[in-house]
């Protein structure tokens, strides 16, 4: 299942799902469950991230620990900018894999993130910001930090609209709307004002961890409720765990809602 733009043009974009799995990925280490042992490639889920190919270049949303193999798998040679949803390890710890990008860009990689994400990146990757000269080119990632909040901002000539959300009772995260597409992973609460920001999207991506309730993630029923509240033509579920078999879950889901999978491509209008 792959969705691509009908034609290329200045208002077309292409989303590629680099990873659609939970923080531990699927298969999980040491697990012998049917999904972890499945021969269906769509049940092999690396940690969550997408790229959005825009007229001005390719934007990466989050840098998961699997980033190197994801970019190689999808033959993505260069990333022009990175936008972050939040600072959890499964969303930032692949940042060092950006070290090669400045050679292709000719400048530091721009990162767009909140103050909280920036603080954690500076702490986790302190060597990238050390006040000393590198021993050789490419020794550390070259990064340019750009602070974002809840206001719309521009990346590579395209508007990104932040979608404020909660990830458990005390943790704030962002989703993003880009044209008729929205990406909302790692949340268990999208406030009414944020639902309003999502109205009119054609393709909604939302996290759905498992069938049972979870304290910081939507389960399937909750994700379905969000899809109905937004009214998107198509909803794709990401950040799915090993409790969910791809084909069985898609067969159970209502029309217009499917699980995403690693490598899926979706055409969008920006």
TrEMBL record:
UniProt entry keywords in alphabetical sequence? Hydrolase
Q: Name one GO molecular function term.
A: phosphoribosyl 1,2-cyclic phosphate phosphodiesterase activity
Q: What class of enzyme is it?
A: hydrolase
What protein am I looking at? Phosphoribosyl 1,2-cyclic phosphodiesterase
Q: For this protein, what is the EC number?
A: 3.1.4.55
Short name of one Pfam family: Lactamase_B_2
Record's InterPro entries?
A: Metallo-B-lactamas, RibonucZ/Hydroxyglut_hydro
* Domain Metallo-beta-lactamase intervals: 46-242
Q: Which organism is it from?
A: Stieleria maiorica
């Amino acid at each position: 299942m792959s969705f691509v733009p009908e034609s290329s043009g200045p208002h077309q974009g292409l989303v590629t799902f680099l990873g659609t799995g939970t923080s531990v990925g699927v298969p999980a280490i040491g697990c012998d469950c049917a999904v972890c042992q499945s021969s269906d490639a769509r049940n092999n889920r690396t940690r969550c991230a997408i790229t959005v190919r825009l007229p001005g270049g390719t934007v990466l949303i989050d840098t998961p620990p699997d980033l190197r193999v994801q970019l190689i798998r999808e033959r993505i040679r260069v990333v022009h900018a990175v936008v972050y949803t939040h600072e959890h390890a499964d969303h930032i710890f692949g940042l060092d894999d950006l070290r090669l990008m400045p050679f292709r860009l000719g400048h530091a990689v721009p990162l767009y993130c909140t103050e909280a994400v920036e603080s954690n990146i500076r702490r986790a990757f302190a060597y990238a910001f050390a006040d000393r000269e590198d021993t050789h080119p490419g020794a550390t990632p070259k990064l340019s930090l750009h602070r974002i909040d809840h206001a719309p901002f521009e990346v590579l000539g395209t508007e990104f609209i932040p979608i404020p959300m909660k990830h458990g009772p005390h943790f704030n995260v962002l989703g993003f709307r880009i044209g008729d597409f929205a990406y909302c992973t790692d949340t268990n609460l999208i406030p009414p004002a944020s639902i309003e920001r999502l109205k009119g999207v054609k393709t909604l991506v939302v996290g759905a961890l498992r069938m049972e309730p979870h304290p910081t993630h939507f389960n399937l029923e909750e994700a379905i409720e969000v899809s109905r509240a937004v009214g998107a033509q198509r909803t794709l579920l990401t950040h799915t765990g090993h409790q969910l078999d791809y084909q069985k879950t898609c067969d159970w889901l209502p029309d217009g809602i499917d699980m995403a999978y690693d490598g899926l491509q979706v055409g969008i209008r920006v």
